[in-house]
Amino acid sequence: MAVHPVLERVTRRVAERSAGRRADYLARIRAARTAGPARGGMGCANLAHGFAACGVQDKLWLRGNVTPNIAIVSAYNDMLSAHQPLKDYPDLIKAAIRAAGGTAQFAGGVPAMCDGITQGRAGMELSLFSRDVVAMAAAVALSHDMFDGALMLGVCDKIVPGLVIGALSFGHLPVILVPAGPMASGLPNADKARVRKRYAAGEIGRDELLAAEAASYHSPGTCTFYGTANSNQLLMEVMGLHLPGASFVPPGTGLRDALTEAAARRVLKLTDLADEYTPIGELMDERALVNGVVALLATGGSTNHTLHLVAMAAAAGIELTWDDFDELSKVTPLLTRLYPNGTADVNHFHAAGGTAFLIGELIDAGLVHEDARTVGGSTLAAYRKTPELGANGRVVWQDVAPESGDLGVLRPVDEPFDTHGGLHTVRGNLGRAVVKVSAVRPEHRTIEAPARVFETQDALHEAFGAGELDRDVVAVVRYQGPRANGMPELHRLTPPLAVLQDRGHRVALVTDGRMSGASGAVPAAIHVSPEAAAGGPLARVRDGDIVRLDADKGLLEILVPDEEFEARQPEGAPPGDWSGTGRELFESFRRAVGPAEQGAGVFA
After folding, report:
1. What pLDDT does 212 receive?
2. Are residues 228 and 367 in the same domain?
3. Are β-strands 546-550 and 446-454 bridged in parallel, bridged antiparallel, or unpaired?
4. What is the mean pLDDT of residues 163-183?
5. How many domains does the chain have?
6. Does residue 408 lie within any of the structural domains?
7. 3-class DSSP string for 389-433
8. Rg of the chain's alpha carbons, rounded to an integer?
9. Could you tell me which residues come within 8 angstroms of residue 59 by beta carbon, excluding any fewer than 6 positions away?
10. Do 173 and 281 have their domain in common?
């Protein structure tokens, strides 16, 4: 199947726009490639330090300078359900690599924070910045010149993009991302959403809400709704950084362990000491990134990736823009219905055919670059197969069923849930923003209503509790961007706004903060850029101004005469005392961070 003309045009435009930076990046990583392992050029004392704690056999192999040595970089901790299964991975990996004739060392850990735990709390204001901390920690782990490749162990929101950005600084090395898999399905998502709205409306108490949440998040593994963590997993697979079918196999199973061992063996074949040298910096090209954008759109994935994909691209010397997302969205059909865009979770998606069926449909429609390089095979075509546990305990890949196992969850390209992708870009005199439309009914995608301006989530909750929002309203929540307070997710706003919409009111959210993959049925223009703290127009909005949001037409406007609006002075301000819960340690990040449209990163 020929590549879709829009896909071809966008990919070509990305390549042309990025030509200079990409060439500089490739020159840098190619210069880092050495004839044989870099440790061969170390002084004797340096090398002795590097293998001092190894066993006798590993020391012999490392001294010989002909055996590949693989770094293990992990986000393990046992507080996060998604990362708790990673505890035993290093031993599995080391054993598999040793049996295949290589060595492996645990090179370092990276921090892993959970947005689900920090929602609405001060710690959430460190969340986005943690991505760049993870990148720096991964770079420290790889900085010892001991390694010929790396396995990155991570799952959740900012962690996977951070691992990729860190790995791209060592783009001459092959890297495979190794996931942990989702927890078993718990309380049905429709029931969870209903309980949350009842609590927001004051109909039930905390005990009943906590019981529902504990029944939803109940065991090791990734949270099963299709938020940023599971969007990470799907994107890593479509972009060729996972083994085929690795994303959604549950933890604690024989197949999960076999996939981890297979990743260990596979990375050895990708090193410069083998025949399939595949450095991550060359694999991560404009084709891989455009494939990731299409997969995000086709599945209605997390809006956080309008930041993360841009930041990952920049780390590879590639300039990806929201215009690219928008143009691709117009021709990418929506092929999944997963919570919060539906009631099913990723386990249902996996059972219906999962990534193999999705990738096959996108390849056949010419909507992804089949010739993109991957860690699992020479091209993306290898990802049309699904893994099974063979009789010898190793993974075998089989052809996926030609039809979806559940058309309510996963559909073919010629029978989509919608004809366009799950994300739209909107723009106007309030700036540019992103709207996740895949969960929003068509009749709710356009709203024109008076603004009510807030500068904190708590202030909106207080107004809701006092009955002040029981009407048509556009809630403008400003000074939530990266320069203001780290750009926290604003999940706590979803239940009260959903209650207002259920009461028949026309409701929308406009904010320079984030909502992430859990964005719900209320239309939300998020990541507004430029942000209020950088002098953006949101700082000049007043209570009662009429705001128009039209997600289908791509409009975000304040209906105030231009001269009057431009003459206004900004109101409000970012928090004056940004301290406590470690926030004071990140003050330099607030000063250095770039705008949302450029990935909201702290690296130039």
Report:
1. 83
2. yes
3. antiparallel
4. 97
5. 2
6. no
7. ECCCCCEEEEECCCCCCCCCCECCCCCCCECCCCEEEEEECCEEE
8. 24
9. 51
10. yes
- Residue 202: Cβ within 10 Å count: 9
pLDDT confidence band for 215 (50 / 70 / 90): confident
User: Which residues form the domain of 533?
Assistant: 423-598
Classify residue 382 as exposed, middle or buried by CB count within 10 Å of its CB (0-12, 13-18, 19+): middle
Side chain identity, residue 196: R
Instruction: Give yes or no for residue 421 having a pLDDT over 60.
Output: yes
Q: Are residues 450 and 313 in the same domain?
A: no
Answer whether residue 191 is part of any domain: no
Pair (492, 358) in one structural domain: no
Here the tokens at position 545 are 């101004």
DSSP 418: B
Helix 228-238 to helix 354-364 angle, to the nearest 10 degrees? 50
CATH classification at residue 563: 3.50.30.80
What's the CA gap between 496 and 199, in Å, rounded? 9
Q: Cis bond leading into 530, ω under 30°? A: yes
- pLDDT tens readout for residues 534-565: 999 999 999 999 999 999 999 999 999 999 99
pLDDT in tens, 283-324: 999 999 999 999 999 999 999 999 999 999 999 999 999 999
Based on the fold, state whether residues 432 and 344 are members of the same structural domain: no
Three-state SS for 119? coil
| CB atoms inside a 10 Å sphere around CB 464 | 20
Q: Specify whether the CB–CB gap between 191 and 143 falls below 8 A.
A: no
Assess if residue 205 is contained within a domain. no
Residues 434 and 320 in one domain: no
- pLDDT category of residue 519 using cuts at 50, 70 and 90: low
Say which residue the tokens 């783009």 belong to: 171
- DSSP annotation of 583: G
**Nearest C-alpha neighbor of 143 from the set 162, 163, 161, 167:** 167
Work out the number of other CB atoms within 10 angstroms of the CB of residue 565: 17
* Nearest CA-CA partner of 278 in 373, 363, 193: 373
| Residue at 203 is within a domain | no
The total number of residues shown for the chain amounts to 604
Q: Residues 474, 449: contact at Cβ < 8 Å?
A: yes
Closest CA to 70 of 154, 162, 170, 142: 142
For residues 142 and 283, membership in a common domain is answered with: yes
| Average pLDDT rounded to a whole number, residues 590-600 | 95
The three-state DSSP-derived secondary structure of 359-381 is HHHHHHCCCCCCCCCCCCCCCHH
User: Looking at the structure, do residues 365 and 305 belong to the same domain, yes or no?
Assistant: yes
